[in-house]
Amino acid sequence: MAHSLNNKSAQFTDFICEHTPDLVVVTETWITDKESAVKTLSTPSTYKFFDEPRLNRRGSGIGLLFKENILVTKIAGEFSEYLVSVVLNTDPVLIVGDFNIHVDCHDNTDAVKLLELFESVGLGQHVHTPTHCSGHTLDLIVTRQTDQIIASSPRADCLFSDHIAVFCQLQLDRVPRINSKVSYRNLAAINLDALRKDLSNSILCENMESFDLNELV
């Protein structure tokens, strides 16, 4: 949870550059549709940023930062509808975010209902350490129980706001990196005498009187 990227864009970018994650889910972005500069400042090169602001209300909002070689699409519908689609889908499932429910409290009615909902559709929750400064587990990583995509137990580290960042390695094939072909000229190796000769023989230096300065600008 960022608890507003508006005043943490530099800190957030440093965090991304240090850990170089493939995917980062951000809650409480506090970004509105009009704050495109914040999105730009919070997006390092080689990454893209999707966000969904809370309309007509201050605060809240979620964002997804991901490496640009990863294909990401948005889905529509309620969370319960999505869970139903999970049952019918054979693709690996990964659900993450701040659920704002103390799942570590076994006598919490909301926590019991949420975990029972996961269980009813064959999902399991993997975060079992505190993710909030109050000592509770609110930020969850959920997968299908039959999917073996969690390579190691999630760990909570780096207090970014009142929530702690949760790290997790996934056992999935990486998307191939996009290779860009770059051409450049070694300016230090340029033969200045040959360059001057080429310029003097070029059209740039011929019939200068016939050129109209206004047309050249």
UniProtKB/TrEMBL annotation:
One of its GO terms (molecular function) is catalytic activity. Residues 6-163 form the Endonuclease/exonuclease/phosphatase domain. It comes from the Eukaryota. This is Endonuclease/exonuclease/phosphatase domain-containing protein. It comes from Paramuricea clavata. It holds the Pfam family Exo_endo_phos.
